[in-house]
Amino acid sequence: MSKIGTQLEGAGVWKGPAIDWMKEGLHILSDSELREIDRALKHLLSLGEVDFPDITPETFPLDKVGDLMRELTVRLRYGRGFLMLRGLPREKYSDDDMTRIYFGLGSYIGKPMTQSYLGDILGHVMDVSDYEPKSRGYRKGGGQLMHTDSCDIIGLMCLKSAISGGESRIASALAVHNVMAEQYPELLETLANGLYLKRADEDGRRATRTFSKDRVPFFYEQNDEVTCYLPTGYARLAEKSGQIPFTEQESQALYRVRKVAASPELYLDMGFKEGDIQFLNNRMMVHGRTDYQDAPELENRRHLLRLWFEVPTWPAMPEPQIFHTAEDRAMWSQYRQPLIELPSVHYKKLIEGSLAQMVD
Predict the structure, then answer these.
(1) CA–CA distance from 41 to each of 8, 29, 155, 247, 313 (Å)?
(2) Does an H or E element contain 170, and which?
(3) Residue 358 has pLDDT above 50, yes or no
(4) C-beta of residue 88 within 8 angstroms of C-beta of residue 101
(5) Sequence-distant contacts of 208-216: CB under 8 A, at least 24 apart
(6) pLDDT at residue number 129
(7) Residues facing residue 82 across a β-bridge
(8) What confidence score (pLDDT) does residue 77 get?
(9) Which of 157, 190, 212, 359 is most open to solvent, judged by the fewest CB atoms within 10 Å of its CB?
């Protein structure tokens, strides 16, 4: 009997109001752990200008913190599905060095994945819509609806917090499934059958296709495990395009799953402090952000760093749920420029107006 449509159970099925995330999902870095991270950064810097693909456990050597990061993949897979690291002294490090630390820590988790047509393996989550009018949602301001990304684990480091608001909002996608199963079983069946997806135009132009070839299931069972993939933004782009008309049932299913994922009965808000790093199991979590007040100056705007990881110790993502294929990522990767992910380089290219045009 299929698990989809039944009430799923386990540590990853939770409701936000019932979770004390500071007890269950917060690790405050100790003084000894901070010293270890600092030594690893100094070692990395002693090697000269190391490009991000070459930041590895060998070039960023950690001991106990390395064990913590490796064990994170087990904790996220079998536990609540999220963890916040806190305690990095933001005032001690430049933007570029914070980014190197973040990437170094992430190298113990899995393989960083290409995120866009720019070929970047580290994304800058900030409002640059005045510099990039065709930006994807994570490059625009304001709140963001609940969704999942195209990876196994997503990591977010806070470089600069907003003037107010901009909290991370997360929820268990497995709990979303349970609500849909109980209250909207026919719509859940539609989501399990899948919806067509559409990439942002610039990503689509540089990939194999703009629209998904087939319907992509939001909930899929394989090897007695339900994997959640809720790319609500891509589904909404496909629906709005008019090129692949949604049925009334499909439109209702998309609307309802977005409403359920954003319901106060399910979500949990986690405030980001500068230097915080959040990790989420993207296969059983949805995330978004609350609205926020931002600074007008580019260098003072809310700024998060994003990593997408493929975890080799996890079972492969179900084939029907893979939207960004290995071929797509390879096509994007050819446009990457060395060190493009460094904040100093990112700011410079934005100001010059060359970032969005560099592959044209």
Answers:
(1) 43, 16, 19, 53, 26
(2) strand 168-172
(3) no
(4) yes
(5) 208/325, 208/327, 208/328, 208/331, 211/238, 211/241, 211/243, 211/244, 212/238, 212/323, 214/320, 216/320, 216/321, 216/323
(6) 81
(7) 280
(8) 97
(9) 359
